[in-house]
Amino acid sequence: MENENMKKSTSLLLSLAGSVAILGLASCEHYAKPVQQEPTAAPVANSGPANKGQGSGSRKAEMQQAKFAAMDTDQDGLISAAEHEAAHNDKFELFDADGSGAFDVDEFLAVRMGPGPREGGQGKKMQKMQAMKKQKFAKMDADASGDVTLAELQAFSGAKFLMVDTDNDGSVSFAEFQAHKSAHAGKAKNKHGKMKAKFAKMDTNQDGVMSGSEHDAAHLVPFVTRDLNGDGTLSAAECEAAREGWSAEKIAKTIVKHEAMDSDHDGILTQDEFLAKARSGFASADTNTDGFVSWDEFQAHHKAEMK
Fold first, then answer.
1. Residues 219-258 pLDDT 10s
2. Domain coordinates in residue numbering, the chain
């Protein structure tokens, strides 16, 4: 009887132990089982700081498209020379705030062109932009008079159009427009573009080479403008009149330059004296002495001058 009771007790204990074990396993499973996470969504392009560069590039492309579309007035996908000139004529009216028929550097600097530092900013970015605009003004001011006329702006924009029209078909496609903007970003490419524009401006018949007469004509522009009586010479009075309104630094530099040109020291500059230095440069660039300067010779000469 005693043995039978022990068996029953043992059986009961084993049963209880098994129940406890099962409950324990169930409890462990409940607390140890990892919580399932919701699947993470894939990152969306151009949706925040992680794609900031990509978004910036997209905005830049949109701005280029908008600028191109504004000049392409007939919306045929090309900017013609006439459309390009019309756009710059509109800019002239914007720059010439006082309606005098020309704009000076202050009027030019006062106009905010596209995105950038706001008017009145004094940061480094603003200073750099203003310095670049002053350089651009100096290039537009072909006769160095301190004012840019409509004719000067048209000549400047015309040379730029020829530079952008890389296939020389008389119109600028969006691909050419974009390529020009991309090239403009790099200093080396930018210098190349400027040289090409300068060459194109002097090569007036667009035959791919610059003749001596074309070179002379380009360098005589400021001379002819200052020769008020049209006698083919520049007197001291005419030179002084041309310098009216200039800064003291610019006047001093010009006086030194003119004195160096006046080879016979008579106080009067002839066309030959005015062109002497430029003609020397032409002869140096004309390495095959055929009387013309090709684009390759022009580039090589400028590279040599920069060394």
1. 999 999 899 999 999 999 998 898 888 888 888 888 898 8
2. 71-190, 203-301
**% of the chain residues with pLDDT over 70:** 74
> Distances from the Cα of 56 to the Cαs of 43, 47, 52, 292, in angstroms?
17, 11, 6, 46
59-95 pLDDT, tens per residue?
A: 777 888 888 899 999 999 999 999 999 988 888 999 9
Written out in words, the top-level CATH class of the domain with range 203-301 is mainly alpha
* Six-digit token string for 137: 């003004």
Cα–Cα distance, 226 to 1 (Å, whole number): 140
* H or E segment and range at residue 105: helix 105-110
Q: What is the CATH number of domain 71-190?
A: 1.10.238.10
Cα separation of 68 and 79, whole Å?
8
Helix (H) or strand (E) holding 216: helix 212-226
